[in-house]
Amino acid sequence: MKRWFLMLMTVALLTGCGYNDFQRLDEQTKSAWSEVLNQYQRRADLVPNIVATVKGEAAFEQDTLTKVIEARSKATSVQVTPETLNDPAAFSKFQAAQGELGSALSRLMVVVEQYPNLKANQGFSDLRVQLEGTENRITVARNRYIQAVQEYNVLARSFPSNLTAMVFSYSPKPSFSVQNEAAISTPPTVDFNKK
């Protein structure tokens, strides 16, 4: 009789402790993260086509092109596993590598403006539109991931589900953050007279 009572109490406690919510939200964050990776991979796959098109412009700045190639190499070399979501250091390293690639591509697009032949190239124009679309998809995917992590972290920190989190080692997950807040808070300088 005691044994049945203990089992019944255990089941009753587990149903109200948020265990199933942790499972659902953990899977939701993994799914959202997979979509982020999918969009980053799409961007990385576009880079070789952009580089090949830009190389056709003889006078193009080789240094900028080299930086894009190096940033892509670094971004794709960071190994991402499901455990990355639970490791703030690995997550930060991945985020930094993706940030470098994004910055390098932005610099490339700014430099391209100085090359009318390249801007007029239909192949490059199509690639540029695809890249812009991919950057938008990355933003949407990151926002979904941020929302999923927020729901998970609220559950992990709220009472009584925080007790379940402690028992089963469900620690809060890292979210996307801005690498350099001071840099993005400074408005960019726009100079139309510069050539």
Please explain how this structure is put together.
It is a single chain. The protein has eight helices and no strands. The chain has 195 residues and is mainly α. It has a single domain (23-185), classed as LemA-like domain (de novo design (two linked rop proteins), Up-down Bundle), CATH 1.20.1440.20. The chain is 75% helix and 0% strand.
What's a quick, concise take on this entry?
Helices cover 75% and strands 0% of the residues. It is mainly α and 195 residues long.
Q: What are the salient characteristics of this protein?
A:
elongated; mainly alpha; de novo design (two linked rop proteins); disordered C terminus; 195 residues
Lay out the secondary structure:
Blueprint: H1 2-15, H2 19-55, H3 62-77, H4 88-112, H5 116-120, H6 122-157, H7 161-168, H8 181-185
Helix pairs in contact: 2-3, 2-6, 3-4
